[in-house]
Each structure stands twice: as structure tokens, then as C-alpha cells.
Amino acid sequence: MRKFLERIFLNEKFIFAVILLNAFVIFAEESEIDNLALQITDIACTFIFIIEMIVKHIHLGFKGYWKSGWNRMDGILVILSLPSVASLFLPKVGIDLSILMIFRLLRVLRFFRVMHFFPNFTQIIKNFKLAMKQSYAILLAFFVIIVIFGLVNCALFKEIAPAYFSTPLDSIYAIFQLFTVEGWYEIPNTIAEATSSTIGSLVKFYFCLLLILGGIIGMSFINSIFVDAMVSDNNDDVKQKLEELEKKIDQLLEEKNENKNNRL
User: Fold this and answer.
1) Domains of the chain with CATH codes
2) What is the per-residue pLDDT across 138-147, written as a single tens digit (0 to 9) for each?
3) Are 112 and 73 in contact (CB under 8 A)?
4) Could you give the residue ranges of the DSSP H alpha helices within 36-120?
């Protein structure tokens, strides 16, 4: 029986199919399709995930199961989905689970497990961690720049454009919006309309400089560093292969010269 359960519930393809089925069921339920078959299928999927967690505990042991990051995420989501199962029985004794049923929305996070099936996903995560490690100082410096300009603009334009700069947090958000080139022109236009033509022109020029330095040059610089760090492993592989190829070429040239000398 144990081997039979392990063969079924440790089969990644079977679990992947159940995840997709559960995704369809949740999509239908959130679309307000009231169907008894959907409810039964949803509960069945939840029980399958519970049994899978139990089988993995038996197969890997408690420490072995919770040592894996994917298993930790899966186990937490399964535990949080238990109120939706308990609601089938506890309302009969007069217990209201309306608050606990909020956790049913967390079931959608279970679909992150699908990423585990993507090819080279582990390598992608590894490269992402490496990219974050190499570029965190640049990201931190960029955030500090946003905060500084946010505070400066809050002091300058608090009274003129309170919709954007009434508080430091609003001002920081406005600068972030400007650097992401998201409706950036609305901010200087609002200030220009509330001031004279000369001040309005200066303000527009000032915000154009901010856009060029922060939104275009700054964001492009950060993207280039992050992308370069993400593909650094691939560059290392290419470099290693080129070095190996150069060594082989050198060996062939040496052998050719030796043969030539021997003939002479």
C-alpha cells in the first residue's frame, strides 16, 4: 500500500494535473458558477494535496520534508486550505467559519508549484539570487535618490500640487511614478497650470531632467546591470568554452610545427 501511494502521490505529472484541475475549479468558483460538481472537485483536490503531504512526510521524514523550500511552501498552503474542508462539517454544530474562509483565497498561491516544472527553473532562481547580490547596492542607491528628490519636491511643491506632494510618502511615490515614465507629464503640467509661465517652464525643464537622469538613464543602467548578472553564468560558460577551444587550437598548431620540423 505504501509503494502504491508513493507511486501515485510522488508522481509530479499527476500532481501537476491536479494543480491545473484545481486552477480551473477556482476560476469557475470565483466566476460565481455555483455547481455541486465543482465543490466536490475542489474538496477532492484539497484531499489529494493533504494525502500528498502525508505521503511525503512518510517518505522523506519530518525534517526531510520541511527542509525543502518547495515542500515548506506547499505544506503551509495545504494547512491554510484546511478551513475550507472543515467548513463542510463544523457549521452543523453551529460554528461560524466566515472569517476563516478568507484563507481559501490563499489556495491560488498553490499554483506557484507549477513553476517547479519549468525547464531550468532552478538555474533561473540561482541566477536571480546572484543578480540581486551583485546589484543590491545599485538598487539601494537608486532608492535613496528617489527618497531625496521626494523630500525636496515635497518641500518645493507641497502647496502648489498637494495631489502629488502633500506628504513625503506621496512625494516619493510621485518621483517613483516619474522614474517609471508612468504619466510623468501630468505632474509638471499640474504645477505649471498653478504658477506663472516662467516658473511653469522652469518646472517642466526640471522634471524633464529628472525623467532623463532617473527614468531613462538610471533605469536603463539598473536593467543592464541586473540582466548582465542574470546571464553571467552563461557568459562564464561561453568564456570557458572559448578558452578550451584556444587550447585545442594551440595544441594543433604545436603538433603541426613538430611534424614540420621532423620532416625537415
Assistant:
1) 2-117 (1.20.120), 123-230 (1.10.287)
2) 888 888 989 9
3) yes
4) 36-60, 62-67, 69-80, 82-86
**Residue 103: CB partners within 8 Å, gap ≥ 6?**
80, 81, 83, 84
Cα 186 off chain centre by: 30
What does each C-alpha distance from 188 to 95, 151, 163, 205 come to in angstroms? 56, 16, 12, 9
User: Do the Cβ atoms of 181 and 217 come closer than 8 Å?
Assistant: no
The three three-digit cell numbers of residue 199, written as one number: 516658473
- Alpha helix positions (H), 81-216: 82-86, 121-157, 162-165, 168-179, 186-193, 197-210
Q: Max alpha carbon distance in the chain (Å)?
A: 104
- Gyration radius of the chain's alpha carbons: 30
Q: Which three cell numbers stand for residue 137?
A: 547596492
Q: What is the pLDDT of residue 100?
A: 54
How far is residue 173's CA from residue 216's CA, in Å, rounded to a whole number? 17
Instruction: Provide the 3-class DSSP secondary structure of residue 120.
Output: coil
What is the DSSP code (8-state) at residue 30? H
Residues constituting the chain: 264
Copy the grid coordinates of residue 38: 465543482
Mean of per-residue pLDDT scores for the chain = 79
